[in-house]
Structure formats: C-alpha cells, structure tokens
Specification:
The chain is an alpha/beta fold. It has 13 helices and 11 strands. It has helices at about 15-20, 25-35, 50-65, 65-70, 75-90, 95-100, 115-130, 140-155, 180-200, 205-210, 245-250, 275-285, 305-340; strands spanning about 5-10, 40, 45-50, 100-105, 110-115, 130-135, 160-165, 215-220, 230-235, 260-265, 290-295. The longest helix has about 35 residues, at about 305-340. The protein is flat and about 70 Å long.
Length: about 350
Amino acid sequence: MTTRESLTIDLHSTESAIALVGEQEANLRIFAAQTGATLVLRGRDLYITGTPAQIQLCQQLIQDLGTLWREGRPVSGVDILTVRHAYDTQQREALQELQQDILARTRRGDIIRAKTFRQRQYIQAIRSHTLTFGIGPAGTGKTFLATVLAVQALLSGTYERLILTRPAVEAGERLGFLPGDLQQKIDPYLRPLYDALYELVEPEKISNLMERGVIEVAPLAYMRGRTLNNAFVILDEAQNTTPAQMKMVLTRIGFNSCLVVTGDLTQTDLPEHQTSGLSVVTKILKDVEGIAFCYLTKGDVIRHPLVERIIDAYDRHEQALLTKSKERASGRSDRSAKAN
C-alpha cells in the first residue's frame, strides 16, 4: 500500500494565493488532475496530500510558476499545462524565459505575453519572417498576438502603416439584408480586428490614425491592385478566402513589409464546393524559403476553459461522423463486390 503524505506551502500573501489558485480555485483542480494530489487552500497556506511522487510533482509545478504568483500575476490553466508540457519535453530551462518575456501591456496595464511554447515560436516567426501563417483553433491568440506586434512595430516607426483585413464571407446571413451603407454592412465582419486594437491603443488615437491612413481596417476585396510597401499587414479568417483571393493578397507584399495570415481550417464558412485558399496554400508554399508556418493547437487556447472543451467536443463529433462515413463507404464497396 502506497504511503500518503502531506505538505504545506506558505504562499506569502493573500494576493499570491489568489493569483495561484485562480477564479473559484479552478487551478487547484488542474493541479490535482495533472499530479493526482489533493490540494486545499486555507488562508495563504496550501495543503497538498498524496504519495511522495505526487507531492513532489505538484510542488515542482507550483515552484516553477513562482515567477508569476509571487508577484501577484494571475496563473492560468494554460500556464500550468505549459509547465507540465515542459517537464514532458525537457524544456524546464526555457520556462522562466517564457514567463518573463513581456510582450506588451494593455491600456488597463494587464501584461501580454506568450503563454505557451508554440505561441512564443509564433511570435519569433513573425519577428524574423516577411510572411508568417498562424493556423489553429479559436482562442489561441493568432490574431491578437499578431496585432500586438503590429502596433508595436507601427509605434516604433518600423512600418509606416498597419493594415488589417479579412474576407467578408456570409456565415448563414445575407450581407444585403444588413442595414446601412457598404461600410456599415462590413463593419461587423471587421469587429474582431477593432477589438484587438482597442486593447492596446486609446480609441481617440485609433480614430486619428485611421483618418490619416496610418491604420486601415478593410475587407479583403479592397486589397486588389495594391502594392503594400512599408506596411504590416494582417489577413484574418484566411480559411474563408478562395485560392484566387489568397494568391492575390500574397502578391501584394511590397518592400519593407510584413504579412501575417491567420485562420482556422476547422471553421470554414465557404460553400461546400469551394476549396479554402488557406488549405491550398499550406501545400503550395510549405517548402518556400522565407515563409513560416506556425500551427497552434487546442493546448494553446487562452480563452475561457469552456472554449477548449467545446473544441474537444466538436473534434470528437467530427471524428465520429468521419468514421461513420468510412464505414458506410466500406459497406457499399462490399455490397458492390458481392453483386459483381
């Protein structure tokens, strides 16, 4: 019978304790799931119960997150899973660098940083490549991180313009039925790009920059025929481009420009018969020098934990449908063979 032991960790302050355990102590459940130990918080004391191996692993996880919670910086579930992933892949030495590398701060003063190794690789790719593709599910920070880097580059004078664009594809609604003129009709499609900007720059300053043409938020159709020099360009929702549209926007790259293309191949709103330009380009350009392809996964989801569970559920559902489809196709093939 395995001996169960206990350990008490003094978290130093109420602020540190709140930062570590998370909202409604959600992080304690994640620690328990990752280590098998039982965790209970009393004041600023954290009680850990389990086998010696479970306690040791839990203690190591908490210690390696100390850069965050000791300063009162909230620890997320993703942070915990990243530390555990670092153990499994022998990357513990890179953890502190990941945690301390502050990318920027929001207008409210909240710290923006890469929270996973794949997010950090994505940031490094954007900084070192003219063309970067960020591909992955919702909530992995593809567009937000690219926008942060774009705003920084714009304000530092590296680029003269910031251009945010996405295809205005109708997802179950007809564009013509929306009220207003063309700009008012397309604004809802571009709203996520505005949201990312408002996290970083005062609304009044954004309006001024847009009036001067320094920041441009426009549908993809507006990119045709242009050459984008001295510009940081972000193409969002690229899974909804056609192959022709993708080729069009990629050939807009000018001198001293940077293009980041983001998309989620599992959320295409194109008609069933239409192939996604993002899907095609991953095959055509995969070996071209100077282009980076970064693939984020559900493990990089930074939104509410429910988002990751939703993604998991859809993945299982789609896999089940694919399995049934293959079984039906196999059954039809068997019957055809017997008939012949």
